[in-house]
Amino acid sequence: MPRVTVHLLRHGEVFNPDGVLYGRLPNFHLSERGHAMAELVAGHFKDQADAGNAPVYLVASPLTRAQETAQPTASALGLDIVTDPRIIEARNHFEGMKVSKGELLKPKHWRYFVNPLRPSWGEPYQAQAERMLAAARDARRRAFELGGDGAQAIMVSHQLPIWATRRSAEGRRLWHDPRNRECTLASLTSLTFDGDDVVGVSYSEPAAALLPGAATTPGA
């Protein structure tokens, strides 16, 4: 069967001076560092293109930070950005809040902690992985139509959906300690497909030079 790689690209750093969990809220733009991260990723893919292995299909979450991360790569490769709502950030009860120990201990939130394995405070991990993998398989098919065997696609998404997708693809349990996610800003989690089956997962950080000092507040 033909092999295609779909790169799950996490967006760059977000301008978020209040440190809120921004989730699906609109108008959270990249910071200056985030734009620089997006440019580094674009350079990474341009180097691949110059070597004769250019990604041929580019998809992004509808959220502002994902669209802004995708733009330099679209310009570098001459690709249109296809917007896919299936790769949006996870839903989360705490969206828009500055999450702290004091906030989490408020009784009004307690009912959202009844099942941390699902999790009960937001979109189930399983639902995230399913929608992301469905979108990745569609991106795989479109990339193959455009580039044939060995083609590449890029999907610009968000940390938690990417991490849930990776754990699902690797056959691992989906509940996890958020502090242990391997999905830094502007990182690539790359799925190798043989037909519609994921047969390999790799990880890289083309913007690693800009990670020291970057914001660590997650989107969800």
TrEMBL record:
InterPro entries: His_Pase_superF_clade-1, His_PPase_superfam, PGM_Phosphatase. SMART domains: PGAM (SM00855). This is Histidine phosphatase family protein. CDD domains: HP_PGM_like (cd07067). It comes from the Bacteria. Signal peptide: none annotated.
